[in-house]
From TrEMBL:
GO-annotated molecular function: DNA-binding transcription factor activity; transcription cis-regulatory region binding
Gene3D superfamilies: 3.40.50.2300, lambda repressor-like DNA-binding domains
Segments of this protein annotated with the region Disordered: 1-21
Protein name per Swiss-Prot or TrEMBL: LacI family DNA-binding transcriptional regulator
DNA-binding keyword on record: yes
Alphabetical list of CDD domains matching this protein: HTH_LacI (cd01392)
Keywords carried by this UniProt record: DNA-binding, Transcription, Transcription regulation
Record Pfam families: LacI (PF00356), Peripla_BP_1 (PF00532)
Amino acid sequence: MSDSQPSTQRPATISDVAREAGTGKTSVSRYLNGETHVLSADLRQRIETAIARLNYRPNQMARGLKRGRNRLLGMLAADLTNPYTVEVLQGVEAACHALGYMPLICHAANEVEMERRFLQLLTTYRVEGLIVNALGAEEDVLRPLRGAGIPAVLVDRTVEGFEADLIGLDNTDAIETAIAHLVASGFDAVHFVVQPFERVSSRRLREAAFRAALGARGLPVPPTVVLDLNEPAAVGAALADLDARIDDATRRGVRAALFAANAPVALAIARHLRARFGAAWQEKAALLSIDDP
């Protein structure tokens, strides 16, 4: 084995490792690819020692090109400020780590055009799979994935016309369970609050299930309150609308409940109610939410 290290002007190569370990590049390649069962214990130790001594780092992109696989999984997230999305991301990262994949995360920041651009970019990276939490994606944007042979899984939201496995909540059952709980608890005035619908399937499904659940019980179905968290003026108007509804319920002697379609909406409502009514705001209105705020 050589006592000298390669020049510090360049990173160590697989040839350097082979020379340091006193073996050929094929054996080192087998070691790096996990085929250690075909190597003797002594050779495995020499290669491991050489890698550590030379601080060798495999060129994953080059290896991916050679094998036709790059071990990259793309994830497109609509909104990383949503606690639900953060939990999903943590699960994706843990699963990728366990299976030897590297997640490539793209944040669309609730921008439809950004979502479209990231989907095109991930296709050019030849990711081995794609996890999509869509905001406004249409089937024509996702269609190139099929042409490129990239499997896709949708999270929480469907895309009309695009067939793929979906991991998400049973929205109808969740809403039905929630309304049953509120009605059994004596709430007579229940108001649904949601972010702008756009093309987000889960928001529309939840509103439809909400209206159906109230209607099936013969309860009034108030107009949906749309809370656009990206528009301060619109937020103020929507919260003022909720204030008026709560005040009306108080005057009529009925119990009011606010049903938030997701965690960001619930957090905005909770902050507003606390600012208006103080720590005892729950005495004025109940707050129920899909997802954990």
